[in-house]
Amino acid sequence: MTHRVIVLGGGVIGLASALELSRKGHDVTVLEKVRCGGQASGAAAGMLAPYSEIGEDPDDFFRLCLASLREYPVWQEEVKKISGHDFEYTNSGSLHAVYHEADLLALKTRQSWQREWGAEAELVDATRIKKLEPHLSDSIIGAMHYPEESHVFAPDYVRALEEACRKNGVTIAEELEAVEVHSWKEDIDLVSKNGQRFQAERLVIASGAWSKELEETFSLNLPVYPIRGQICAYELGDKQVNHIVYTSQGYLVPKANGTLVNGASEDIAGFMTDVTVSGIARLTNWNKNIFPFLTDLKPFHTWAGLRPATQDGYPFIGKHPNAKHIIFATGHYRNGILLSPITAKIVAALLSDEKTPVPIETFAPNRFTY
Fold it and tell me: What domains appear along the chain, each with residue ranges and CATH number?
């Protein structure tokens, strides 16, 4: 059975969900306050690196991220085919680098449990590191090499998702400024600030950092907060970087256009997306400890985006407990690009009352509602 579906939010999660729903034959409309991909999505570094970023234990969130990483090879090809637009998807592998002997033990512990999940994790010493990345600092004594980790060029990926949605029959309404939910307990009725009315049978909430505004409407506690992430980029010139390099201080991601993306410093600044001197300085002050050649370079580009962080760091994915036609897919923090394929497939499964590809109980949208 197919349905008329509204997706509230045109970021990477909203667009990916809309695309997958349209592929299942549903009549889909995306509503966006500003421009699609204009906040966290288009400003992301595009890392697909769950092994590097999640080092504690294989919880449900790790399983979600890993499942999405493994969806990417096929997913990105399908997005390119439908949209007719190419974008960078690079299986570069990554190096999680450390500077102290004590940190090597932590990497070995991580390697032990990650291998149980199929990680091709190799602990490499300083000599081997230099063969993988000749320009790395001599202070780095070891690293975990993850050949499976990858990255995309986020702005082009989001644009391709948007174009794929349009070509697949999705209606996209942008620059609405505000959208009010007039009714939702049975039929869906939404009205934009300029008076446009949108009606459907199903509603997907993908509002990112603005999701908290819907708490009263849906009688749920939705602690989602905007976190400003600031990033800078360098032109590499004659230097070559081959892998994502991840450390406790941040990450560096080489792009096919000859640039090196350095992220990210984070702070709480409400919905402000301006770039600050101190925010970029937090990046430039340490990155020379990874690549000494950055000492002589200045970023040619700086930018910031809002990351929708939940109280416990996990996204909200699932149905409203009292209205099964309302589906939440929001609060992905800094993992929206990575989690877009698996979230889209979960949303499509939930809308059709099918089994989800991975367990989602941990991400229930009512987990903070008492």
Answer: 4-54+155-224+312-363 (3.50.50.60), 91-150+225-310 (3.30.9.10)
